[in-house]
Design goal:
401 residues, 31 strands, rod-shaped, 1 helix, 6-stranded mixed β-sheet, mainly beta
């Protein structure tokens, strides 16, 4: 056997290696000894940096097993070398390592987008197959990505790319498919709040609905499913009977965590509605005007109401106000109108910025009551709001973080 030149020229079976007892080694003995020493040292040395490419032949490197990878080209292969050879790689830039269940096996069975300074250890399984046995990002990714928005699309929820196509999942930036990913409401419970999480399933980005609340990952700062960093929060939703997703002006039941534009809601009385209760006993005028919505913690909800009411008894005041979730009338939201004669229309306007609502489901509604002297009936105008019928009683909501 000639003097070996690389570590792969050696065999794990000692009798196969040279020199054999019958070899006429002569003056070559010192060559064998020096070469073997060099090979041993190279496996514990830093080799020359290698530029990234589709195939980076890390196994064929003869300088050392500790290598810097430069450039940003996507890597799909590390070349072919005997099974058991390992290489420790330091990535100097951001690039994509493409997961392959046979030839480039990555943690989580998902692509990895590296950041400068990331370190990985790969072991050859032979025949051009490599497995990543250790990956360290040194803490949070260089950039946390949330380039997406969750919306309703037909009968599904849809997570679509927005101002980019990356989403940080389990500490790694993953690519959101250009067509987006969807989630049906199948088997979910109506009128239940679900948080929507994205995760990688054998390399494919997938959505799941869960009643488990979210929390902030201490290592990355990403909002995740509480106790499970493999799930990244992308929104929340509340199915209606069916079950089916719903996002209409009267029921804003889909919210995005990333790039959320806020919501705007609107509802109205479809027919005249009456109130006979006397202050301080405000009552909900009619539940059909409820504007239902989901809100994130810390959002400001701006509620407005307007329309026309009449009174059957002259001199009786109609009081109108805003309430949330069937609770007490909101202080500062009252509008009152004095009726100088029977059945005289009195316009009203109520406005209120509301803070401190808990995250999740709420509704805003209009409540009414007659003046303290009582008597008569307050009638609130219903119908369909149009330019020629502006007196219809409506309620609106808007949110902003």
């Amino acid at each position: 056997m000639p003097v070996p030149s690389t570590i792969t020229d050696l065999s794990v079976v000692s009798v196969v290696n040279s020199p054999a007892g019958t070899d006429p080694i002569g003056n070559t003995l010192d060559d064998y000894l020096r070469t073997i020493q060099a090979l041993l040292r190279r496996e514990q040395a830093q080799g020359a940096a290698i530029a990234s490419a589709a195939t980076v032949n890390i196994g064929g490197n003869t300088d050392g097993n500790y290598l810097h990878i430069t450039g940003t080209t996507t890597i799909t292969s590390f070349g072919t070398v005997s099974a058991g050879i390992s290489r420790t790689l330091v990535f100097d830039s951001s690039l994509t390592l493409t997961h392959n269940s046979t030839s480039l096996i990555l943690p989580g069975a998902a692509n990895i987008v590296t950041a400068a300074g990331d370190v990985a250890e790969f072991v050859s399984e032979g025949s051009g197959n490599w497995r990543c046995v250790k990956y360290s990002s040194g803490g949070a990714p260089a950039t946390v990505f949330g380039q997406c928005r969750l919306t309703q699309s037909g009968g599904n929820l849809k997570l679509s790319p927005f101002n980019g196509n990356r989403l940080t999942i389990n500490g790694q930036a993953q690519v959101i498919p250009s067509a987006g990913i969807t989630l049906a409401a199948t088997s979910l419970t109506p009128s239940t709040l679900y948080y929507v999480y994205a995760y990688m399933n054998s390399g494919t980005m997938t959505l799941e609905a869960s009643t488990t609340a979210h929390a902030t990952d201490a290592n990355t700062g990403v909002e995740i499913k509480s106790g499970d960093s493999s799930r990244t929060l992308v929104g929340m939703a509340r199915p209606i009977t069916g079950p089916a997703w719903q996002d209409t002006a009267a029921q804003r039941f889909v919210r995005s965590w990333f790039n959320d534009p806020g919501i705007a809601g609107l509802n109205w009385f479809t027919a005249n509605r009456q109130v006979t209760s006397v202050v301080p006993s405000y009552v909900e005028i009619n539940s059909e005007i409820r504007c239902e919505f989901l809100c994130w913690s810390g959002e400001i909800v701006q509620v407005g109401g307007s329309g026309n009411s009449t009174q059957t008894v002259a001199g009786i005041t109609n009081h109108t106000a805003v309430a949330f979730d069937g609770l007490a009338t909101e202080t500062g939201s009252w509008s009152s109108g004095y009726t100088p004669s029977n059945n005289f229309g009195v316009p009203y306007t109520v406005n209120l910025p509301k803070t401190g609502l808990l995250e999740g489901y709420h509704y805003a509604t209009l409540v009414g009551a007659l003046g303290a002297s009582g008597g008569g009936v307050a009638t609130y105008a219903g119908g369909t709001p149009t330019a020629t019928a502006p007196s219809v009683c409506t309620i609106t909501i808007q949110t902003k973080k």
